[in-house]
Amino acid sequence: xxxxxxxxxxxxxxxxxxxxxxxxxxxxxxxxxxxxxxxxxxxxxxxxxxxxxxxxxxxxxxxxxxxxxxxxxxxxxxxxxxxxxxxxxxxxxxxxxxxxxxxxxxxxxxxxxxxxxxxxxxxxxxxxxxxxxxxxxxxxxxxxxxxxxxxxxxxxxxxxxxxxxxxxxxxxxxxxxxxxxxxxxxxxxxxxxxxxxxxxxxxxxxxxxxxxxxxxxxxxxxxxxxxxxxxxxxxxxxxxxxxxxxxxxxxxxxxxxxxxxxxxxxxxxxxxxxxxxxxxxxxxxxxxxxxxxxxxxxxxxxxxxxxxxxxxxxxxxxxxxxxxxxxxxxxxxxxxxxxxxxxxxxxxxxxxxxxxxxxxxxxxxxxxxxxxxxxxxxxxxxxxxxxxxxxxxxxxxxxxxxxxxxxxxxxxxxxxxxxxxxxxxxxxxxxxxxxxxxxxxxxxxxxxxxxxxxxxxxxxxxxxxxxxxxxxxxxxxxxxxxxxxxxxxxxxxxxxxxxxxxxxxxxxxxxxxxxxxxxxxxxxx
Amino acid sequence: xxxxxxxxxxxxxxxxxxxxxxxxxxxxxxxxxxxxxxxxxxxxxxxxxxxxxxxxxxxxxxxxxxxxxxxxxxxxxxxxxxxxxxxxxxxxxxxxxxxxxxxxxxxxxxxxxxxxxxxxxxxxxxxxxxxxxxxxxxxxxxxxxxxxxxxxxxxxxxxxxxxxxxxxxxxxxxxxxxxxxxxxxxxxxxxxxxxxxxxxxxxxxxxxxxxxxxxxxxxxxxxxxxxxxxxxxxxxxxxxxxxxxxxxxxxxxxxxxxxxxxxxxxxxxxxxxxxxxxxxxxxxxxxxxxxxxxxxxxxxxxxxxxxxxxxxxxxxxxxxxxxxxxxxxxxxxxxxxxxxxxxxxxxxxxxxxxxxxxxxxxxxxxxxxxxxxxxxxxxxxxxxxxxxxxxxxxxxxxxxxxxxxxxxxxxxxxxxxxxxxxxxxxxxxxxxxxxxxxxxxxxxxxxxxxxxxxxxxxxxxxxxxxxxxxxxxxxxxxxxxxxxxxxxxxxxxxxxxxxxxxxxxxxxxxxxxxxxxxxxxxxxxxxxxxxxxxxxxxxxxxxxxxxxxxxxxxxxxxxxxxxxxxxxxxxxxxxxxxxxxxxxxxxxxxxxxxxxxxxxxxxxxxxxxxxxxxxxxxxxxxxxxxxxxxxxxxxxxxxxxxxxxxxxxxxxxxxxxxxxxxxxxxxxxxxxxxxxxx
Lengths: 525, 678
Description:
A: mainly alpha, two-stranded antiparallel sheet
């Protein structure tokens, strides 16, 4: 399937609309703050419209994963070509974009959360121009990662995200923002280097014979990397189950595990969240973390099926530890935002456990959990933001009785909380259910231990609800106003999705079922 | 048409919930008529359905299922199924719910969140009906959790009080522990049979397919599913949440924490009964017996009117669970039904008393006296005649006095345990059963006498007591009528000949023969043989309990305090609820909190310590290298610069202006770099 607007492919539009927006923002005089905000809103709004178009015309029967022909909306051009470099031969980096069931759902998530992030950035007062310029650059980076099929392109987009995120935390963050920003930067930078090394190793091991010219060239095309026949004789990563393949898998895994974040690579997250401004937390937890698990599924699983099978149990165990460890750490927090940050670690652990099952239920459950968690955690971080905006505190013990003071707000926050707790009828339940069902098939005991997480989750969520929303309202909170129309606008689509996908998850599952079923088959055979 | 009726019954309360959440406050009377009207329609439809179902004399199920999602190449089917069991249960739920809706118009009048209260009642009714009509474990689990959350919301209705929100949290979390087991049980079954529907699971087991190919795992799966019931039906060792749940409004206690939700566990066991092995059933029987004994001992010693009723509920639920465990299927389920009527009545009666006490205390501007403590009551009989008479009927029923509904079901349960012990020697079960029967009569008549008989504790309060309004007393009268035998069997001394026994038959076991419980036929024969004896003992025990209660509290022939002193440790233990709460809060809650603190410390100091430490080391190294850079390298660089300056002059000669030569230089430097760095 192809779709073009003005002769340019829809995916290119999708990725670069925010860059256009950024250019416009840079041209607008800094005093004209509202024009800047509206430009950002329009850019991300168009992005969402494009994503909805994609959702409605996307062919749910096509596979993708490793077949270039069944990817949709493909754009494939040569980009950087250098002929006859000594020893290396021809260097070929292509501009290769495409969608399959795995990336389609992430694209929808990204564009939705991207717009909601802009709406909730409305009351950023400091350096508005710079803020939105970086924000839009960040959105481009994230969207690019989800649609890139050339590893080099993937890498560039991956690194493009890093800097705006660093500055958004470091300049617009809370008191310890610099520490948090540097920590974030170093963690992800180390991961980036590991990925770079693995990418180069893959590049030198994979060569593709062009049927047209008969020329054999090295390539960054990820789909070629998934085909064992393309590995050259004597290449570092050639063969099956070799040590170097395990090492390369591990290097990639660590990079992605940092983003997820998986225990023990997670400590950048609570700091980053606590210091980041609300919309950036929403982006961070809503989209950025998903890049980690997405990377595992896009890169590690299909390129290294052998190493993946070798390491899945290890992955499942890390998932289990994250689930329980994250939940227990969440319970010990007295900062509302930090608590939500740890809950993200716990919930992303479910994703890892689900995909590590290497069966359709687990895989679908895991990817659905990525989407659902993105929605739920956005509600939760927005909820913290609503209180922080009004009181400038996040201490769980500083609140109480908000339910009477701000009934509408309490209503939406409770729905988010209950979705996080895995209440049936809300979306979190469905994805947790399938993740666990799938995982149980593969790892009986690991899954049983992981399921204890649902008890601890109920514990920290209900305890939080009690401390913040229930009880007597202290006098200092008596002037708090309920949600503003702008806040309601940010919450509404998320709440609708939480309820709708909780009752009827089929539209989301249909989108990815074919691709993920194939991915499972591809990795396990 | 019959498939749409149950769905309408199910969805009407949900509709009520949605409407009340969004528009409740704006409606006249805050919409109580809307909620009550919708649930009344559900009730009428349920009665219609039951009559049709039972009179058709066919065990045919009304069922309908559809595909919820396709996942991989398989599909997940969900749907509904109504057999006689479900049809009876529908009426129980909608009936009690309707009565509670009306009762609440009086009891909750002027409440701060009146419309919200009715909204949650709707959510609860919907979820509970969902449990009843589903044909599969997935929807069962979903409805199960929704019931849990509505219970949470209603217990915490007065959430300004810390004790209320604490109780709500406790209820949900303790239930989650049971649900954790249930969830694992469901995973085992889904893993083994790739389906959630009861029918499909049963037929697979029947054809010899066992989870992981072992009988032990089938037993384990049964016990794990039962864990859900242990939580919801407040069975030992997870019974601790129910007494605290009395923090909720009293009509809620009647509906959720006496008649319906807590009975959901019993219903669950009845639903999965065919797949329970004899070992699993034995575990279930003992859990039920232990629960009924522990709770009954505690009930005797409590003074809070709702607490006594709460422990009594736990004890009676234990009875039902025990009944199912020994194989007295119909008796156990029948006790669920009869108990729903008289226990809901007892709670609403207690509600009526508490309401009257509150009104009177309010008028007297007394804000210290506890309106729920029976020691502040006494002599209410003449002030509240309708409440008293109905309360008496309920008390007779729960004590198992002949001509009441309670007698019929309890008698069958006791006969069942006795029959069970004659078959395989578990004599402790009937012993506990009969002992609890005596205790039940004792604590219930104690409660009745302390509340309604004798002299008022404080004349000034009691003089202000008035009978509750009609909207509250009429539901009591309805329930009192339903506590008589005729509704269940025309024979006051035996249930076995009534319509109920004809309609509700024990389902066939599907487990392999070696681990099957005794068949319904064999069991019935054993019960027949022993029934007369069981009845005599049970009447004697109940009579003894009643007599003792009168001797102690009415005629004061036996000094209750002295007796308590004699009992010593036993009394102290029972009075303090056998210290379960203390133990749990120290061992589990405290333990978890310490663990979370340790992990937080570990996270902030060890894991982050490593991260920060390595950053620190990098910083030291970089400052060393910075020094070297400034002093050593820069020196070299400066020297080089001077050299370069001179070399520049020399090199300018190489600049030939020929592109080919430049290219050679570039390639050459590239090679040098490559060799240097690889």
